[in-house]
Amino acid sequence: MMPNRMPSWRDNLYHLLFRHCGLCQLPLAHAEHYWCQHCISHFPSPPYCHHCGSTTLTSVAHCGHCLTQPPRWHRLYRLGEYRPPLQQLVHQLKFCGKFWLARPLAQQLAHQITQPAPLLLPVPLHWRRYSQRGFNQSHQLALALGAILNSRVNHRVFQRLRHTQPQQQLTQKQRRHNLHHAFQLRPITLPDHVAIVDDVVTTGATVDQLTRLLIQRGVKQVDIYTLCHTEQSVN
């Protein structure tokens, strides 16, 4: 059975001291792990389209939607769907200051990445949101992934030009309008293959805008690394 609550700071201290699972608190078979295999098996990880990231009946390179309206990026790697317990873990990472969750989540995501990009680019935060949160969760995730994949991380390639309305409650059309001219690319030499790192991808509006800037700069292959993908109706 999965626990009906998420771990507190006391639970995390207990984990560090006694090496118990950060979710169910049972002893871990391997001290370097954060969750036991039983809890990891409950992560919502159904098959998905490796191009857009949408859930499919079987794993496919391109779903029907991608064949008619392909995303700008080359491939999307995800850990799972934005459902419990991943939903709560990402929420704790993003809004509860538990930045240390970036490392074990990155370890699980790294298992999915078959061809790592040599350069990882986290989605930037506006300085107002950064000052409120104290850190950029996508940057923390990129740093953890970079250490595992032996990839470089550069959080200064993208610049956020203006503060935007939170994307969660917006439709796909509203998200595109909300992000219009929200980013720019600094004059930095880039390799042919890069990956954009974001914690959650819903409509893909944010990573689409960033991918467009990279392609305009001459980047040949842009991948997306994300913890969760969530569906949203198009209005």
Automatic annotation (TrEMBL):
Keyword hit for RNA-binding: no
CDD domains assigned: PRTases_typeI
Coiled-coil intervals, chain numbering: none
Recorded GO MF terms: glycosyltransferase activity
Domain Phosphoribosyltransferase span(s) in chain numbering: 165-230
Keyword field: Glycosyltransferase, Transferase
Pfam families linked to this entry: Pribosyltran
Family: Belongs to the ComF/GntX family.
Protein name as catalogued: Phosphoribosyltransferase family protein
